[in-house]
Amino acid sequence: MKIMIVEDHAEMRRMLCSVVNGAAPGPVHIVECADGEEAVRRYGTERPDLLLMDVQLGRMNGFAAAEAIMHLDHEAAVIFVTSHNTSAYRTKAKLMRARGFVSKDNLSELETLLHSKH
């Protein structure tokens, strides 16, 4: 399985890599992107099975990046992982048909989602 982690903070990227490697039942190839623009640019060549996307990402936020990626690939699977756990963000993610919305304060939810994908 190939997972693209889109997160602007290097320490959080490392933490998400650790969670993914610990939760995945099989081998995982992780692609790291530091912002939304990089994720959109690399998506076509990397073709990940799943994207873990932060919402607040500098120049291009996670929602805009996910929309651009979903325009390229209607089957793109996105789980938003954010510290901004608001009902407005959850609603936006649901309207975008995201596979999940996880608070960075509760990454055990991400482990559960990763296990449920297999």
Short descriptors:
single chain; 118 residues; five-stranded parallel β-sheet; 5 helices
Structure explained in plain terms:
Helix 1 (10-23) crosses helix 5 (108-116) and helix 2 packs parallel to helix 3 (62-72). Helix content is 46%, strand content 19%. Helix 1 (10-23) links the parallel strand 1 and strand 2 (29-33). The protein has helices spanning 10-23, 36-46, 62-72, 87-95, 108-116, and strands spanning 2-6, 29-33, 50-53, 78-82, 100-103. Strands 2-1-3-4-5 form a five-stranded parallel sheet, with helices on both faces. It is globular, with a radius of gyration of 13 Å. With 118 residues, the chain is of the alpha/beta class. The protein has a domain at 62-118.
Number of DSSP-assigned strands: 5
Count the DSSP helices. 5
The share of residues in extended strands comes to: 15-25%
SSE arrangement, N to C: EHEHEHEHEH
| Largest sheet data | 5 strands, parallel
What is Rg? 13 Å
Structural class: alpha/beta
Point out poorly predicted stretches: none
Q: Widest sheet: strand order?
A: 2-1-3-4-5
Shape: globular
* End-to-end separation: 10 Å
Helix content: 40-55%
Overall average residue pLDDT: 92
